[in-house]
## 1
Amino acid sequence: MQRSILLSFAARYLMPLMLVFSVFLLIRGHNEVGGGFAGGLVATSALMLYAIALSPAALRKLLPVEPRLLISIGLLSAFSSGVIPMLAGKPFMTGLWLKSPIPVIGKVGTPLLFDTGVYLVVIGVVVWILLTLAEE
Amino acid sequence: MVLLLAITAGVLFASAIYMILRRSLMKILVGLLLISYAVNLLLFASADLIPARPALVAADSLLPPATYADPVPQALILTAIVISFGLTAFAVVLMRQVYGTLGTDDLYEMRCTDVPCQEVEIASEEELLEEPL
Amino acid sequence: MDPLILLTGTVLSGILLAACAPLLYRRLGAYAAGLALFPLAIFIQLCLAIPALAAGATWQAALPWVPSLGLSLNVKLDGLGLVMALLISGIGALVIIYGGAYLKGHPFLGRFYSLVILFMTAMLGVVLSNNALLLFVFWELTSISSFFLIGFEHHKANARAAAWQALLVTGSGGLAMLAGFALLGKITGSFEISQWIESSAAVIAHPLAPAAFLLILAGAATKSAQFPFHFWLPNAMEAPTPVSAYLHSATMVKAGVYLLARLFPVFGGLALWPVVVTTLGLVTLVGGALLALAQTDLKRLLAYTTISALGSMVFFLGLGTSLAVKTAVAVLIAHALYKGALFLVAGSVDHGTGTRDIAILGGIGRAMPFTAAAAGLAGLSMAGIPPLLGFIAKELMYETTLESTLPALLSGLLLVANVGMVAVAGWVGYRPFWGQPGQEDLHPHEGSAGLWLPPILLAALSLLLGAFPQLAGKWLVAPAAQAVWQATLSVKLSIWHGLTPMLGLSALTLLLGIGLSAARQRLQPAIARFWHALAKFGPAALYPRSLHTVLSFAAWQTNLLQSGYLRLYVGSIILFTVVLAIFTMARQSIQLVLPTISPPRFYDVILIGIILTAAFLVTRARSRLATMALLGSIGFSIAVIFLLYSAPDLAMVQFAIETLTVILFVLVLYRLPKFKQLSSQSAKITDMLVALMGGILMTGLMLIVSAHNSDAHLARYFVENSLPLANGRNIVNVILVDFRGFDTMGEITVLSIAALGVFSLIKLAAGGKKKRQVPLARGKK
């Protein structure tokens, strides 16, 4: 495949920006437009842009972990957000919040952990599917 | 607008059903995609349509402004959209493998993968009867 | 010992042991017969419990299992259960030892142990359950283990057919019984059997009581091989002989009798009870004995007399006097002991000579002395000769019929059946051992101790209990009869009553029976011809006919519904939905309300115009690329609609997904087949009509829904509580991650599974690709 220099240049610099934006979407999702699904999809788009502009192998090299590991981490953190309240003697998936907000991120609680899980699962699933297809 | 959307969803359903009834695998795939659009639109428009009032609570209040778009169908649709991507991906790959394995995309030629194409033999009365009494 | 541990522990460890048995056999080999220690331990525990239970105590324990279904592990041990449990565990231990010797070297011996222990556990469960649903579970488990044991030699077609027959007959009876239990549960509001007994007056007064009774009776009659369901039992003789001894004579077939006895306090007062139950028992009693006379195979002879004996137990329960109840219990115990022994003897004879045909067998007693001794004792008990238990049971039988309302008729019929029993006892217990040998050279030899010790023990028990009848009366018959009668009963069994009419009838029975037994060669062919001529009218002939009908119907309707054409499946689903929806709307007179039409905005019209055009064009498109473009335009237009109508989250997700879907298709598009025009013109028109109907239905439904949707209190709850309860201002997101977080968790799990599916589809196919033809796989990178 002929690679477009413009595209690959754009991808290199756009990708980190989009990733940062996706994290931003995730964190503010509880109060503003955004959330784990939207954030995860934006992050995936960024990664796929990179894969198309350079190559699937380049994306593999860039990813610190296997996409399927992302799925397991995501499912695990979503599940643990349900279990943590049980340790505190509350029913499964009761939202627990820290009293004081953390700077930059804002209020932190188990729903944020859950949303992070969703975020990671979405990235893991879509990237895994598309990379598997692309590498075939 | 509700009427228009209802008609649109109906048309989307009709073309989705028509495509699912085709013999070619590819067209059935298109039908699957269409039907998820149709369902999402149907869910979305079955709540009151309110322009430019998302269900967000402003920074200084406890409740959103008096009129707001119903958040429940939105939450339903949001996950449905993502799931339908998973479904599409799975269906695409499945159909590709079916095509690769069987060498055809005509459902009529795949009949024998679902039902036995020879006549099924049923044991006759004599075979079922062992010793009388 | 704590009854809870004893009762539930028995059941649980039995199931565990059944699972491990094949493994143990592989490890231990011949020592695996030590598995008999398990039933033996239960037997001893139960023996120790006899004094307490005979004094009227009951052991009870309950553990909740599925409380919402009214199902609890509610077990209860009383006198009736005790007698059954003693038989089950005692004979079970002997059968495991015997089976180890009988099937020595058989490749499936491990499976035999496993199934027998499973059966034993299930059977103990049946007699210990105080909860009807629990009883049903164990009841079915006995049917299933019986199925596997009859089909033990599964390479034989006959064994497989017999296993099916037994399962279908007892299984359908079991379903009827479950329906009966459900009715009783509805009448009394409980599934506890002791509760049913307490509220028996209310049950009898209820109009549904006869239906419940008949349904439960159907279960009991199929299980206990009562006419007209008796035919499965002789066919079940395909099972290995120890199985026949254990399941099909001593225990499982008595489950129906047990159930009738157990529910006697509930239904005994029903006007239907004496009529139906005595008739059923009487027909089976006499019919079984007469059918037995036509048999020459040892096991089939024993099977038909078992039917007859089961009939007698049912008959006496039907009579329902206190004496009849005692008689039924006595017959049950006596029959289990002598018939179990005789079956084991038949197996040993088969093992030692290679045949079970009484026309061939004869004079083998000298070579097989121990087996002959067991056969002799058990045969004497079956014939009803003092001082064996069978004699006492027979005296009681005559006493009961003579005291009934129809003494002449009932005693006469009983005499006929008992004469048959005596004759068969002679043919099985005497003739093969001491009679004239047939023409063949048999080379009989005695097997190992495992083959003759168990039958001798059983036969000796008949002698012991017969010689000391007050023992049997006080410790076994009385507690069981009291549990059935629900009141104290004095049971005084003895051998000598003086010169009574019963003694006369017994003597007459013996005399006629011995005569019949001696005249076998002259009479048997005639009897066999007679039954053979009747066979095609019997219920056994009905079985294959009805089975064939069911199978043909199943094949017909499967071919009709399972056509293999996706088009027909989807089309019929849609048409059916349309018809159902129209029917419902018409019945509830739901009106189509057109919404107040607000003039659409300019960009609404454009977006909807795009969607409609694309939706139409997509059905006519011939290129894959164009189709993808059209689908994309629909998706993006919908995303814009989301954006315009206050759903920014949705719009964002939809935009992202559309982009990713395009990438997905780019990756695989050229490896997918091209569009082809395959359908005929007429098929297209039909499909178009179906599609139009579906579309119109959805439009209509949507208009109805949106007209009735003014008050959404679910949404109001979420909106009002979003900030106070969940600390979130974006209500859509709060619903997703907090209020309905559990759903979302399910959804991301589904998503992960889809990814797993895609991955494995590709990797699996890649592994086996070389073998397959892959045409058009050209888009190689």
## 2
Amino acid sequence: MATVKVSEAEKVYILHGIRDDLRVDGRSCEDYRHMEVETDVVSNTDGSARVSLGHTAVLVGIKAEIGKPRPLVPDEGYLEFFVDCSANATPEFEGRGGEELGIELSNTLYRVFNNKNSIDLKGLCISAGEHCWVLYVDVLLLQCDGNLYDAISVAIKAALFNTKIPRVHMSSDDEGGKEVELSDDPFDCVRLSVENVPCIVTLCKVGHRHVVDATLQEKACSVASLIIAVTHRGTVTCVKKVGGGSLDPESIFEMTEAGKRVGKALHAPLMKLLQQEESLGKKREKVGFLG
Amino acid sequence: MAGLELLSDQGYRLDGRKATELRKVQARMGVFAQADGSAYLEQGNTKALAVVYGPHEIRGARSRALHDRAIINCQYSMATFSTAERKRRPHGDRKSTEMSLHLKQTFEAAVLTQLYPRSQIDIYVKILQSDGGNYSVCVNAATLAVIDAGIPMRDYVCACTVGFVDETSLADLCYAEESGGVSSLALALLPRGGQIALVQMDARLHQDHLDTLIEAAMTACKGVSKVLDQVVRQHLQEGSTLRE
């Protein structure tokens, strides 16, 4: 992550601001920065989305491939996550520099998204024990300015919404052998239900309060943060403490409550936006990185 | 080659272009705020992002520093979802390492490195979507990023891939043409002086045709340079009108 240096005086300034519910950029403690979401940006994928949150920018591409179900759950498909911390984001990620952060992020994403409560994994199964859809979710970090988890989760939700999986059916020949047949019509696709897909809300403990969507400067002042995955109903599906410091149980409780509130409020406009974009169909002007 | 006809009798290519026609080039400079310079470039369906950091102090081993000029450090990588078949690693494989080296050579020929002794310039290029001509798209995007970073260069570096089919040279190959067994040549040019920064061909071609092919490549590069020049001018204009 791009490193920022914050002096003691700046820290005090940020801390006092947050105590009075007014942050350096004028937001209150539970406000997000300006967020941009666009889907269907990479045509080589089955679903893709670009999200920018302040200066943080991520691109998510999803490719669906046919694979073999896991032996323990033969009637479910699964998701694979890969986070590429590219050198574009910061020179520190050059070579293998971004690997550690990439693995940490992708492991969290597994925990949050790869379960049947988030996505209908049974729907990804083609024939039990033999074939299933594997969704390769590849996250590309293009610029880091704090709050990676939230930006990535929104991008994944948008990309899953955008994902179109070709319709297949099983045919069996005379000898009882089964074969997977892909539909001839390229527009004959299945869409995923993203209703229960959670979004991640990161809360940073700064002083005695906590803030949503912390910038790098604010993160430098915080002791620890809590990431909370919340569904549109406000159900918490995952809680994880990240960062070096420690939190007391009282503040964890408070932060979870705040996370639920913020997360619930995040889903509705996101879904509205995605549906609005979808309804434009081919008339939509694609902006991508040119806009 | 059986099946695909790369050049029809009427002189049209697979995607309907004429032999010397380039794909549509669209670009934007200053995409990211944190980097010193950045640019996004689309050439047909190939899309690349280039970011420049520097010139700055040498990172890592000081012994790498050159006392009379800056070192240029390039990394080429491809997004795992950029190709039709998913890639397992974004960079570090043999092909990307070679590509990084080519980019480094190209930009060492163009950037005025002697102005920044003992320093380093990082150029990172990422292919977001790949549809042929990856090297040339990267060079074109990186040129814009270097200009955005305000690093002096001798000239724009413009690159283009050309192929040779049925006694005709095709400009700016797409993936279908590249993989269709055309002998292709990648060339990076400093257009004003007509200096060639990099030329590479890894297919068989009769010696007599080489001149025509290089000539076609140079013409195509000059075409690209016009577009890049327009992008830069427009970017500067937008910047200056905002300030007024």
## 3
Amino acid sequence: MLIIGISCFYHDAAAAIVKDGVLIAAAEEERFTRKKHTADFPTLAVKYCLEAAGATIEEVDHIAFYEKPFVKFDRILTTVLAEWPLSYNSFIRAMPLWLKSRLWMKKTIRKELGTEKDIIFGDHHLAHAASAFLVSPFDRAVILTLDGVGEWTTTTRGYGEGIDIHLEDEIQFPHSIGLFYSALTAYLGFEVNDAEWKVMGLAPYGKPTMVDKFEKLVQLRDDGSFRLDLQYFAHHHSAKQMINSRYERLMGRPRRVPESELETFHHDVAHSGQKMTEKLILNLARSAYEKYRIPNLCIAGGVGLNSVANWKILKETPFEKLFVQPAAGDDGGALGVAFWVWNCLLHQPRRFTMTNAYFGPAYENGQISGFLKSAGIRARELSREELVAETAKRIRADRVIGWFQGRMEFGPRALGSRSILANPMNPNMKDIINAKVKFRERFRPFAPSVLREEVSHYFDLDDDSPYMLLVPKVKNEKRDLLPAITHEDGTGRVQTVTKADNPLYYDLIREFQKLTGVPVVVNTSFNVRGEPIVCTPEDAYNCFKKSGIDVLVLGNYILDKDANGEVVQ
Amino acid sequence: MSMASMWKRFVKGWKAFWHPVGKVQTIILLSVLFFVILPFFSPIRFKDPLRKRLGGPSFWIKRKPVVLDLERHHFPF
């Protein structure tokens, strides 16, 4: 039985396909269209999923959309009425879209897919919950879903058992941890729904001098619930603004102009806002543990990508195990709704545990060779052993590597398939990668990939972290050894690598360890600032050519640049 | 130039001309709706649908159990 899940029309559109309860393929539309965070219908992602399953749309048994559009429309209309006349701009922006296509979602989806099949409409937060729990290794777990907003819901608390999901309590719009964090992101002059990572990266540079101000923005209860003080926010009546002038007065300064200089004040705001967010999340997690007394926790929703908070949950609450699915945001809704149909609606048993994120398209050596030939590019073909040895040598020589191998990752992180790799021991490597490739803010950290069995020797962690969603401390004695991946506060956003999940990447890091004694490499996403992660060999080559990446490894092919940055033919 | 290609060009030009007009028209119609019709419904705000009031022992809302029936979920609500 084939089930296609679709999420789109907000941000990070995606599709996923499940065959007899097993995930076959999943991908974000942005990777194919090259439009970052695109909300468009995921036509190309669906096409890829169908190809991966070897099926046509008519052979798919169920097509599922990740939320209920009418319930969302009810929220939009209610908000417009409740905030009239402040909601004028929001109304004018939203209505044409809704009246034209979103209210007729069934028709829209059928038209896009070219089918007359019936569509199943899930529930946004149920899809999030399913995307974590139903593919987790747990038979029983507490579930928390935390995001900006779905239909009405922004936060849920419940539990999963076997194939059942029970979300019992919820917080509704406009009270939302995701939107609280987005407001902070907007205040700091970064782009909402894109640059929340930057706030998290900036936070360690500051001090918690403004936590008392953030505490004025939210009322917390011991039972884990919370409510925003809407006097300070604008997201409930504006489509463009997250905060109002009262928020700025409370902080003591107007919002930062994008791209202007970041001062100590901004560092402190980021730090204090992150602290407040952690306080909210930890309060929720503790209350959920008190209620259900289950040691396993699944988190889904965009807030689940706050890896610093995830780590604190493991350290500071009674939960012993945590599972956050790599595409925890709305992209994961596609996967979630497909599993929700399979397990919860069709009452089928669980047959799949997600242990890695490699569900995107792969390109065989023959396809890569075809591309290289057609583009007139000469590259050296190496055996697997030679490839590993040559790449490891280049990393040790402080070359920046574009690493394109196997199936693309599902979710926002590059995890060794579409990655830029570098030497973690070079104290200048962060600046080198920034200057050559990423062109991003200096304060943002680069993440380490480490062999799973070695992780406890280098980090304050002895568990799996395959999706870079935990941020433990780098061991004190290793910080000087790993300057390129040690962040300002002595932490690192770790990816653990196992032979079972990514044998080639594992062997590469092992080879690097043989050369240097260190089983860690710098791993950052294979893209330049403002672009999605590369998907095809052509994307990879274009990124290699226009950036300062020194070496491109495309499957078994390797290309070097000379000292002048010209590709060596 | 064939009749077909002339017709295509005419349709293209027609659309290009009327698209911005349509946009303006939409804004005018929606503005009328917003300022003339919606005020009759805006007393909804007195029921505090966005739960703006602070205070109280808990902010949780009980979720209704989901009906696990495939047919039920063929509707977008």
## 4
Amino acid sequence: MNAKMLNRVLSVVTPALLLLAWEVASRTQIIDFRFFSAPSAIFKEFVVMLESGELLKHTLISLQRIFIGFTIGTVSGVVIGLAVGLIPAVSAALKPIIDATFPIPKVGLLPLVIIIFGLGEASKYAIIAIGVVYLVIINTVSGVRHIERIYLDVGRNYHASRLMMFTDVALPGALPMIIAGMKISMGVSLILIVSAESLAAKSGIGYLIWTTWQVFEVEKMYVGLFMAAVLGACLTALLDWLERVMIPWKRV
Amino acid sequence: MVEPKLRLRDLNRRFMLRDRAVDALAGISLDVAPGEFLSIVGPSGCGKTTMLRIVAGLETATSGTVEIMREPGSTRPLNAMVFQQESVFPWKNVRDNAAFGLKARGFGKRERYEMVQPILDKVGLRGFEDALPHQLSGGMKQRVAIARAFANDPEIMLMDEPFAALDEQTKLILQAELLRIWEESRKTVMYVTHSIDEAITLSDRVLVMSARPGRVKEIIDIKSAFPRPRDIAAVKSSPKYGEFFGRIWSLLRDEVMAASLVSA
């Protein structure tokens, strides 16, 4: 067996062994089964929740919140980022504010966001949009500033209008960095939605994880954690696909 | 004497390096006739590219004037530059790259695609209109850059060592194609190169520049010896080619030595 095949086998066998060890340890009560339910019990619960539609309901509402908040954050981040990157006056006006507020952990803004936007859906969109917008702005600015000079020279030599410099040169030129920013933002979005839903919501994956824990339905909590992982993997795959479609010239 | 197409008068360019003033160009005065193909050779760092970028409006002269004459009533752009580096946009396909200047001038999509097709055919890009640059060879990408410049139909064409990054065979083919396209359009061309060979085979006149600060050292007339249309192979096998080469090289040699002493 060559090294490559061995690695492939290891990458399947190791998680399987861990699951098996967990199963055995839980059943033989080496670990406390009230907190660490056996994988088989969790899977059973997963099927029940899937059939009742409960799981789908929570997943879809979380997905919707992420989608709306992420879109708002990305679109405004790209627009602001292009302006900051291309127009010195905008940069002078906005850059200090952005730099000063960026390090604030966005989870810490949840109380404020809830006061401003209420307990409804708007506060969920807002907290995700806030988390996303910073990363997208910073990456867009950096993308614009690192566009090769030659492309800007061509734009100037052909007297491209400011709008065309935005749409035909700066935006596509910064696109690889913008999408990299979106990928990082997606991870942040998941953290924020789960936090927001466990704090103030009546639905969603985060709500599911937190409430089931509080009422000691541990299997359901694990199903919630599992779904969060699945959601994250799917959204990452979606962005990878988007990257391939949007920037074919960077494909290796 | 016909009215020149391009008139440079006492062009100076000084830039600051730390707190030291460096003169890149000193007192360049030059007339380029309409339809003329003028090459500029000179040692590295003599300001050839700077001069071209000033004419292109990408840099400003410290003093002196650049005048590009427009035919009365013409709305054509003053210049279009073909750069040495890869300058086609990787995110635009061949057709949209070639039509970039036309888009900047406000032509609608259908109109500019129609305008750009003949020039794409001429530079051998038919069938590649929808390709993205990363799917093309270096020579093909430079064809796109040339098509983009010609498609914009400028008063004068500025070319900054457009074939310098290409391999020898590709370069020969593209030189011949450039001559063919140019002979049809008779654009006024300013062509910067470090290749004496290229300067002789392509140009009507060759301007030899001095080492920094760049001055006009001598302008050599090629056209009277090699009339148009030209066959590159015939030009190169002619005894006059050797004479020109020797003369330009003897002018250039001293300057190259001077330049290497300065930079050492």
